[in-house]
Amino acid sequence: MAKSGAEGAYAMAVVQDGRAYGITLKVEDGAQRARDAAAIDTLLQLELLPESSSEALAGYHRQPVLDHRDRTVGEVRARFRLSHGLPG
User: pTM score, two decimals?
Assistant: First the structure.
């Protein structure tokens, strides 16, 4: 389950194998395309999204950036690695 909020906030709840996860994201500029890429990458890094879903979600995970002539000039993609646990 997921819910978007004001100012680029996004919350997700996932239950898998009897474990519950609460995940929140904040996209500084509030852009939906950045939020989608970050949400999918977060779920993949936490191994909460099957790799088989990657193809179906590819258009959201790595979204093309088009110029005024509809030519691809780049892509929006998440660029981070989650750390597991608190810093020591």
Answer: 0.78
